[in-house]
Design brief:
This protein has about 160 residues and is mainly alpha-helical. It has 7 helices and no strands. The longest helix has 24 residues.
């Protein structure tokens, strides 16, 4: 199978995951599109090295987090004004869906590490261990991020 075919399959299987995570991490549809494209371009170059579907999913999550972080680190990409919310493309997953109102808007308003942990846990269904591996931190750190993020969400939704 060619790299292009491998990447096409990865897009079919994981487009929603990468898109939602990129949007949750960046808070901007335009930036999420940039991250999405860059992640799958990297997959085109490196996808043949991924040994299993689980490895591929973990790699895509990690790559999405890294690309979103490097996008924000670039001085010319820093935003000075908040961007208004835009609708998401249709997602086929179960459970909570990004874009479904005030709760997800509050999630997007969280600092990046809390926003990412909450998104991956509640919207993508990843375990603490999976998030820790993807973010390159300890499980206890992820647990703290989730706890603090939930507290911030509760505060912002009650105000």
């Amino acid at each position: 199978m060619t790299n292009q075919e491998l990447t096409a399959r990865a897009v079919e299987r994981h487009a929603d995951l990468v898109w939602r995570l990129a949007l949750a991490r960046t808070g901007s549809v335009c930036d999420a599109e940039d991250v999405f494209q860059e992640v799958f371009l990297r997959h085109l170059r490196h996808g043949h090295k991924l040994s299993s579907p689980e490895h591929e999913k973990a790699w895509l999550i990690r790559c999405t987090l890294q690309r979103a972080a490097s996008l924000h680190a670039a001085a010319h990409r820093r935003r000075e004004l908040p961007l208004d919310a835009a609708p998401l493309p249709p997602a086929g997953g179960e459970g909570l869906q990004p874009g479904d109102g005030a709760v997800y808007a509050a999630v997007l308003a969280l600092p990046p590490k809390y926003r990412t942990a909450i998104h991956l846990h509640y919207y993508e269904g990843l375990t603490l261990a999976e998030i820790a591996r993807a973010a390159g931190v300890r499980e206890g750190t992820v647990k703290s991020w989730l706890s603090r993020g939930r507290a911030m969400l509760a505060q912002s939704l009650h105000d």
